[in-house]
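> example.struct
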């Protein structure tokens, strides 16, 4: 009766490594992206297993190529000779020594891998617990004044936590969208926590560098670009001073992403794109690719590369969580804007129903107004003038009422184009006269005011044309991100 067929050595090595890791065949197949049944086929010999493929699977299991060599050496002594030439001979003393050495190496390698797994497990559990506790500590600190918060940090060992520093930095980033002063106050608190943090000096440097990046971000939103630049220099100096073995869990992509925002504000757009790509490369599995790709698309839009912006947005679509309506709204809205720049008005119109729904879901009136503005611009592109005039008139009124001068100016000029195309000069003159509050508004820079004056004077003298209005619209869209840009009309 024939004996049981023993699989090939590489197949036996795969089975041994997989079993020692505690994985089943399905686990390994899914991790490797293999079709159902492939791992089983490899292990029983139905499908040939190559050395490169085995090394790839071993790496997924956490084993180096050396582990394969050790097991292959051991397996050659365990396989039944086929066919047996006679009475089996015992290994020689030298061969037994080699077997013992191989088994010892295998045990040591397995212990090293197991130790690494245990250390990683303890570390990840500790990080999760520290971050959960930081949420609680922030709730304790939040009601206090800035001075009291700093005093509490100085008096309490528990508040000198790296995770609390990270949490306060996140609060600073959230505050930056609406209140630059509060963002700066929180970033300075984070730095104060970092200065008093427990742990090795190198780790404290890392933490301080992280906090300095958020100080830079707060200075940027306060329009202190030189101060932000200086703060980022300090951030990277401290960040890189930390030895490799003490670097900890703080994410480097966060610094790269924040610096990209500063470079965008400085109009150093190629540098911003490079930083964004570096952030994408190292953000790993933290689920931030969608947000970073949105920033990339916005930067490409500012450069005027609308095709690549659409590519970045299509890529972002795979990462944006459908449970985050704010992010999804931004994705759809920016996509529609870039499609309009490419004169793909029908494609942009297809996004409008979802944009309207998301705006209502968010419950922010300004989002609904911007959605209506988008509808008006789509209607312009599709030559539906009555619909466009109705939408842009409502949008202009809403922006003016809310004191959003730049948006009010843009919508006024877009409406003026439509009236000029219909020869309704009196309406254009009326709109131009209603632009007066814009000239006293905060946040509209001198060069933009000069461009608006050119249009207003032309309207007063009945010399305004649709082409002039379009030129000013195009200028304002570009100058919004580049205050030094001069109007060439």
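> example.seq
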């Amino acid at each position: 009766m024939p004996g049981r067929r023993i699989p090939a050595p590489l197949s036996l090595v795969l089975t041994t490594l997989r079993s020692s890791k505690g994985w089943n065949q399905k686990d390994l197949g899914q991790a490797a992206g293999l079709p159902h049944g492939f791992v089983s086929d490899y292990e029983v010999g139905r499908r040939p297993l190559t050395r490169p493929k085995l090394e790839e699977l071993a790496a997924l299991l956490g084993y180096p190529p050396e582990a394969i060599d050790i097991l292959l050496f051991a397996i050659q002594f365990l396989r039944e000779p086929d066919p047996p030439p006679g009475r089996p001979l015992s290994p020689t003393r030298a061969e037994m020594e080699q077997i013992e050495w191989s088994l010892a190496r295998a045990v040591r390698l397995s212990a090293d891998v197991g130790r690494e797994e245990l250390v990683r497990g303890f570390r990840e559990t500790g990080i999760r617990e520290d971050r959960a506790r930081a949420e609680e500590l922030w709730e304790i600190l939040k009601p206090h004044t800035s001075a009291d918060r700093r005093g509490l940090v100085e008096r309490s060992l528990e508040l000198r936590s790296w995770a609390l520093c990270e949490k306060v930095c996140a609060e600073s980033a959230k505050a930056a969208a609406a209140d630059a002063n509060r963002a700066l106050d929180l970033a300075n608190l984070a730095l104060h926590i970092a200065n008093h943090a427990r742990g090795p000096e190198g780790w404290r440097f890392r933490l301080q560098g992280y906090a300095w990046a958020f100080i830079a971000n707060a200075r940027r939103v306060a329009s202190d670009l030189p101060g932000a630049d200086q703060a980022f220099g300090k951030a990277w100096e401290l960040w890189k001073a930390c030895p490799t073995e003490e670097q900890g869990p703080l994410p480097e992509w966060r610094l790269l992403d924040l610096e990209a925002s500063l470079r965008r504000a400085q109009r150093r757009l190629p540098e911003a794109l490079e930083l964004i790509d570096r952030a994408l490369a190292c953000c790993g599995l933290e689920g931030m690719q969608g947000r970073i790709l949105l920033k990339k698309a916005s930067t490409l839009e500012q450069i005027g590369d609308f095709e690549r912006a659409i590519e970045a947005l299509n890529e972002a679509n795979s990462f944006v969580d459908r449970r985050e309506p704010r992010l999804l709204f931004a994705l759809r809205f920016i996509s529609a804007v870039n499609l309009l720049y490419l004169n793909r008005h029908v494609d942009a119109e297809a996004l409008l129903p979802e944009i309207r729904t998301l705006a209502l879901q968010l419950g922010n009136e300004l989002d609904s107004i911007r959605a209506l503005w988008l509808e008006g611009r789509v209607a312009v592109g599709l030559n539906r003038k009555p619909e466009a005039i109705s939408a842009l008139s409502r949008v202009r009124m809403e922006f003016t009422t809310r004191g959003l001068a730049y948006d009010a100016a843009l919508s006024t000029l877009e409406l003026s184009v439509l009236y000029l195309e219909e020869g309704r000069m009196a309406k254009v003159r009326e709109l131009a006269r209603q632009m007066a509050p814009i000239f006293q508004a905060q946040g509209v820079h001198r060069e933009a005011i000069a461009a608006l004056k050119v249009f207003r004077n032309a309207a007063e003298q009945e010399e305004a044309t649709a082409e002039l209005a379009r030129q000013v619209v195009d200028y304002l869209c570009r100058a919004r991100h580049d205050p030094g840009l001069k109007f060439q009309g």
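> remarks
Residues 134-244 form one domain.
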